[in-house]
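Re: that chain you flagged

S.,

Sorry for the slow reply, it's been a week of failed gels. I finally had a moment to sit down with the sequence you sent. For the record, here it is as I used it:
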Amino acid sequence: MEMPGFLYGFYERKLQRSLDPERIPRHIGVMVDGNRRWARQFNAPTSQGHQAGADKIHEFLGWCQELGVKVVTLYMLSTDNMNRSGEELDLLMGIIANTLDRLDEDAEISVHAMGAPELLPDYLAARLNRLTSRTPAREKLHVNVAVGYGGRREIVDAVRELLHDAVARGTDIGKLADELSVDDISRCLYTRGQPDPDLVIRTSGEQRLSGFLMWQSAYSEFYFCEALWPAFRKVDFLRALRDYAGRQRRYGS
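Prediction finished late last night. Pasting the structure tokens below so you have them in one place:
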């Protein structure tokens, strides 16, 4: 049975009041999954599902700003997604471009692009470049936009950068191999200089990473939600934060 709207509002406020500000994750990764299935539920075109998902992103970022989250990484388009039909990809790329334009309108959000820009249409790569080069006057939220992103590719790119730098410095490759450390790899990832995600959320009921932040999420907490991304509510988000706050993070110990 669907809970009446006023009860949802009451429950939402109660949940939010119960959260300890000191236990809010600093960095949240989100796998925005389920747009196409949401559209099929309503016999709507796939593009409508992608647009509903884009609208949800802006709503979600507003919740994060309100609750004091500092960094959000959005998994918007994977390298595997690039195998979809040309028609769907064209529509999706346009929706992503419009989403970036809306992010550009928020003076308190900074944006960092993650992925392979050479896989994207020129107009979308140019928008990403322009958006990531601006510095907000007052940053309230940092958003990593993973577009044309693959976790394995990110690690390969990091190693490739290390090797190129070693060659440029005249460093012996054998010496580099002997001295290579975890920190060396981390310094060359797309998220270099940022904290690793404390919490990774995936919607749509799927319980796998699909290559998302494979290196960075080694000690992240995971929360899998049955709701499809366009139907993801603030109540669902607050439940994820409550669940996270109740966990004891062990970092492998």
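What I noticed first: The first strand starts at residue 27 and ends at 31.

Talk soon,
D.
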